[in-house]
Specification:
Layout (H helix, E strand, L loop, with lengths): L1 E6 L3 H28 L4 H30 L2 E3 L2 E2 L1 E2 L3 H17 L5 H14 L1 E3 L2 E5 L3 H33 L5 H25 L1 E4 L2 E4 L4 H17 L5 H12 L3 E4 L7 E4 L14 E3 L3
Helix pairs in contact: 1-2, 2-3, 3-4, 4-5, 5-6, 6-7, 7-8
């Protein structure tokens, strides 16, 4: 007999967090940046501007913590939900340390920072008093970011510079090359998102190992579709895109392999943005 993990996120709470993010961060940030770019600020105004930006970052950090906590505690199996035991103070300390190390290493530490945050949420979660253990490593994420984001960005940046110089010398005014360049940047983000999802789902639970498997091209096509719909709706569709991607990825099966023996099928997805949509699994009894 198979038992299913349930994902019972309250859509009203989801919408509330999303609206808080828009109202407390996105709109104030857009207004401030517009004013900063349209008017040259004085020295005092610049300090005020930096203070406001810092305050907005604190808001995002706080919302992120409670949003992920909400997702984790919306996951249940049989008659119990997964419990999250991490404190905001511990999380905030990790964020401060991670930002500091990322800044002084010029961003090189960022993948390990992401790994530490994922590990914090994963390993402070438990089911039936048994904790999860995250197995993803920072170096693998470093390679994913390097070859899927940084290297393509440098190449496309060089092409944009070349196009700018060429148009300046020839007197051309077409913006088409730049539109193609930005389009390619979005396309490069698709395999990055796919590999990031796979990196997230590398979890031990008791004697079981949980991983994620799906077809590369089908998955990238799905991501492309949801990104396209989010762009043409100016971000309005984005919350639904998260849910639709979650629904797609949780249907992809992988096996639990305790001690090398296959005992059950699993459906699981762990996603970000930060990227954590939650977990849904189908497990057969080990008996």
């Amino acid at each position: 007999m198979k038992n299913y993990f349930k994902f019972s996120l309250d859509p009203i709470k989801f919408l509330l967090y999303w609206l808080l993010f828009l109202i407390l961060y996105v709109i104030p940030y857009a207004v401030i940046m517009n004013r900063f770019e349209s008017e040259k600020p004085s020295t005092n105004e610049s300090f005020i501007f930096l203070g406001i930006i810092f305050f907005l970052i604190l808001i995002v950090i706080t919302l992120y913590y409670f949003f992920i906590k909400l997702y984790i505690e919306s996951i249940g199996y049989k008659d119990q939900n997964i419990q999250f035991h991490g404190t905001f103070g511990s999380f905030f300390g990790k964020v401060l340390l991670g930002y500091f190390l990322s800044i002084i290493t010029l961003g090189i530490y960022s993948p390990w920072f992401m790994k530490d945050l994922t590990k914090f949420f994963m390993e402070n979660s438990s089911y039936n008093s048994n904790k999860f253990k995250f197995k993803g490593d920072g170096f693998t994420l470093f390679l994913i970011i390097t070859f899927c984001v940084i290297v393509p960005s440098f190449i496309l940046g060089g092409l944009i510079v070349f196009g700018t110089v060429y148009m300046a010398n020839t007197g051309a005014e077409s913006t088409t090359p730049f539109m193609y360049a930005y389009l390619l940047i979005y396309l490069f983000m698709i395999p990055y998102m796919y590999l990031l999802y796979k990196w997230f789902v590398d979890i031990d639970f008791k004697e079981y190992h949980i991983s994620w498997k799906t077809d590369f091209w089908n998955a990238c096509g799905k991501i492309l579709l949801e990104m396209f719909l989010s762009v043409i709706t100016l971000g309005i569709y984005m919350p639904l895109a998260f849910i639709r991607l979650y629904d797609y990825f949780v249907k992809k099966r992988r096996r639990f392999l305790p001690s090398g023996h296959c005992i059950s099928d699993t459906i699981l997805n762990k996603a970000e943005i930060f990227y954590s949509y939650g977990v849904k699994a189908c497990c057969a009894s080990s008996h």
